[in-house]
Design a protein that fits this description.
The chain is of the alpha+beta class. The chain has a single domain (6-163, 199-252), classed as 4-Layer Sandwich (CNF1/YfiH-like putative cysteine hydrolases). 22% of the residues lie in helices and 24% in strands. The chain has helices spanning 45-58, 129-134, 136-146, 171-180, 200-210, 233-238; strands at 6-7, 17-20, 63-65, 75-77, 92-95, 100-106, 110-116, 121-127, 155-158, 168-170, 188-190, 195-198, 215-218, 247-252. A six-stranded mixed sheet has the order 4-5-8-7-9-13. Strand 11 (188-190) and strand 12 (195-198) form a beta hairpin.
Length: 258
């Protein structure tokens, strides 16, 4: 049995965290093996076991908290675990409560983990292109500041996501970003006629830096190209597969011993 692969970022220091790959779980078939997706259904025995392994790999004794992700720019403050059917509809969350592991699910979108260690505040965001241009990282930073964080102390890391070489978009997609800010053209490179290659990771990093985040780490890992390590929505779509796995990125504050 392979071990869970928890990829860590230097920028986040000693705070418990990990961008988990697809290895080390119990899911089978096209979703093998550490698939963390719920697909609108109650947790299955496989998901529960995968969650247990994820917790053990990142912060034993913690509780995973996830969202019902909707590709929005909405961020919520988490103060306690919630039942599965009460997951907030949002794409980012923050907390200052020890023992909670904030979990973001992705399969090409960019997971962003953030920490202000001095304030004891953490955040996690799901930045697909819609959320990224809509300001999901800005909302996450603002929510962290509500809990006492200082954006100039916050460090952020962008985990595995689809890379420029794998992310083909059309003229209309590129035009939307150019209309928002003409300088966004630098995140696109020429592709085949009527198409471009979009650098989601660099764009998310730009949004973080523009918001005042001084420490931003990009892991530079392509979910589409590295099938052995990562699930990919676009890869599954190109193959005509009926479903796809989701990996999880986790960050937490150490639990306080009773």
């Amino acid at each position: 049995m392979s071990a869970v692969e928890a990829i860590r970022a230097k920028a986040l220091g000693a705070v418990p965290h990990g961008f988990l790959a697809r290895r080390g779980g119990v899911s089978t078939g096209a979703m093998a093996s550490l698939d963390m997706g719920r697909r609108g259904q109650p947790p299955t025995p496989e998901l529960i076991e995968n969650q247990r392994r994820a917790i053990a790999a990142v912060a034993p004794g913690s509780v995973i908290v996830t969202l019902y992700q909707i590709h929005s720019a909405d961020a919520v403050v988490i103060t306690e675990p919630h039942d599965d059917h009460l997951r907030p509809h949002a794409d980012a969350m923050v907390t200052n409560r020890p023992g909670l592991l904030l979990g973001i699910l992705t399969a090409d979108c960019a997971p962003v983990l953030l920490v202000d260690s001095a304030a004891g505040v953490i955040g996690a965001a799901h930045a697909g292109w819609k959320g990224a241009i809509g300001g999901v990282t800005d909302a996450t930073i603002a929510a962290m500041e509500q809990l006492g964080a200082d954006r100039h102390r916050i460090a952020a890391a962008i985990g595995p996501c689809i890379a420029r070489a794998s992310y083909e978009v059309d003229d209309g997609f590129a035009a939307r970003f150019a209309a928002d800010d003409p300088a966004n053209e630098r995140f696109f490179s020429p592709g085949k006629l009527g198409h471009h290659q979009f650098d989601l990771e660099a764009y998310v990093a730009h949004r973080l830096a523009a918001a005042g985040i001084r420490t931003v780490e990009m892991l530079g890992l392509d979910t589409y190209a590295d099938e052995d390590r990562f699930f990919s929505f676009r890869r599954a779509t190109h193959r005509g597969e009926p479903d796809y796995g989701r990996q999880i990125s986790l960050i937490g504050l150490p639990a306080i011993d009773a």
